[in-house]
Amino acid sequence: MDGFLHDNLIIAVIRGGAGEYSSRSLSAGSAIARALEDVATILDIFVDTDGVWHIAGVPKKQGDIVNRADLVISAIPVARAYRDDVFHSGIFDMVPSIGTGHAEGALLARVPHLYETLRIGGVKTPRMKVYHADGPDGWSGMAEDIFRSMPLPVVMRPTLDEFPDEAPNQPIKDFDGIFRVLHTYGANPQFEGIVAEEYVRGKRVTVYVIDGFRGEASYVVPPVYTFDVDEQTQASLSLAESRYAQETARMAYDALDINGFARFDMVVGPSGAYVLGVYSVPDISASSPIHRALEHVGADGKKLMIHMVNRALDMHTYA
C-alpha cells in the first residue's frame, strides 16, 4: 500500500525533550516528518528541556495538539516520556497515536521489570542484581558486593533507564571501574538504583518486529548489524542463529504485549539469544540500522511509516 487509508491527514510529530538523547529524538522525528511530508500535513512539535511544547516556536498546550491532529507520532523514547510525564493525563487516548503509550513506557523504563516480564515469557536475559540508591551500605558497600557476587566483567545501568535500547556493552573489569560508574550515575538527582548484569558474549544483532506487516500478526525482519563482542569485529550469523534470533524477537514481542513496532538488541551465543534492549518507536534517521533491515525485505522507511500510520488509524477505529 502506497498511501493512507484516509485523505488529507494532519500528523503531529513530537520530538526533542530533556536528557542526553534529545538530539537523537530530534533527528528521528525529523526523519519521520520528511518521510511523510509529501503524503500528509505535518505539525512539527518541539518539546523543550522544560517539557513545554511548541509549534513554529509558539508554546502550545497538549490539548491544542490533539484538537488539530488526526494522528500523533512521538519520536521521544517511551521510557523518557514516562519518566518526564510527557504525555500526561491520558489525553492521547483520544487520538490515534504511535509511541505515546504510558503503560508501555512504564514497562520499558524499569530494567528489572522489563527483564522479569521477558523471562516470564520464556525469553533469555542476562543474569542481574539490583541495588537501590538508598541501600544501607553506601557506594563502597554496593561496589564491593557487585565485585564479589557478580562474574566479571560486568555491565551496569540505572534501574530507571532513560533510553533502554542503548543496551550496555562496555564491560567493567575491576572494582575501581564499578565504583566510578556508581558515582557517575549517583550524581543524577533522579537516580533510583543500579542494575548490575552479566556480560553476555556472542554476536550482537538487531531484530525488528512490525505489527500487521504484509498480513502477518507479528512480522519479524531478518537480523542486521551483526558484531562479535569478543573479537570486536563484524561477524555473520549462521542460518540457525538467524532463525533463533528471529524466534526470540517474536517471543519477546508477544511477552511485552507491544502494539505496532519494536526493535530488539540481543546477543546470540552458544547458550542462546539474550535480549539486552528494547525500543518501541521507529527510528528511520540516516544512521539507523533499520534501513539495512528493510532493504532485505524490499521495503523502506517511508513504507514502514505509512503502514504504521494506517495500522494506528485502523486500531483506533475498532478500539
Secondary-structure blueprint:
Layout: E1 10-16, H1 22-36, E2 41-47, E3 53-55, E4 58-60, H2 62-68, E5 71-74, H3 78-84, E6 97-98, H4 102-109, H5 111-120, E7 128-132, H6 138-149, E8 154-158, H7 175-186, E9 193-198, E10 203-211, E11 218-220, E12 224-228, E13 233-234, H8 239-256, E14 261-269, E15 272-279, H9 290-296, H10 301-317
Parallel strand pairs: 1-2, 1-5, 5-6
Antiparallel strand pairs: 2-3, 3-4, 7-9, 8-9, 10-11, 10-12, 10-14, 12-13, 14-15
List SSEs in N-to-C order: EHEEEHEHEHHEHEHEEEEEHEEHH
CATH superfamily of the largest domain: ATP-grasp fold, B domain
Shape summary: globular
Uncertain residue segments: none
Q: In the residues, how many domains can be counted?
A: 3
Give the gist of this structure:
By secondary structure, the protein is of the alpha+beta class.
Could you characterize the architecture of this molecule?
With 319 residues, the chain is α+β, with helices and mostly antiparallel strands. It folds into 3 domains: 10-99, Rossmann fold, CATH 3.40.50.20; 108-122 and 200-280, D-amino Acid Aminotransferase, Chain A, domain 1, CATH 3.30.470.20; 128-198, Dna Ligase, domain 1 (2-Layer Sandwich). The protein is 35% helix and 24% strand. The chain is built from 10 helices and 15 strands. The protein has helices at 22-36, 62-68, 78-84, 102-109, 111-120, 138-149, 175-186, 239-256, 290-296, 301-317, and strands at residues 10-16, 41-47, 53-55, 58-60, 71-74, 97-98, 128-132, 154-158, 193-198, 203-211, 218-220, 224-228, 233-234, 261-269, 272-279. The strands form 3 sheets. It has a 6-stranded mixed β-sheet with strand order 4-3-2-1-5-6. Strands 10, 11, 12, 13, 14 and 15 form a 6-stranded antiparallel β-sheet that branches. The longest helix has 18 residues, at 239-256. It is globular, with a radius of gyration of 20 Å. The relative contact order is 0.15. The model has no long low-confidence stretch (mean pLDDT 84).
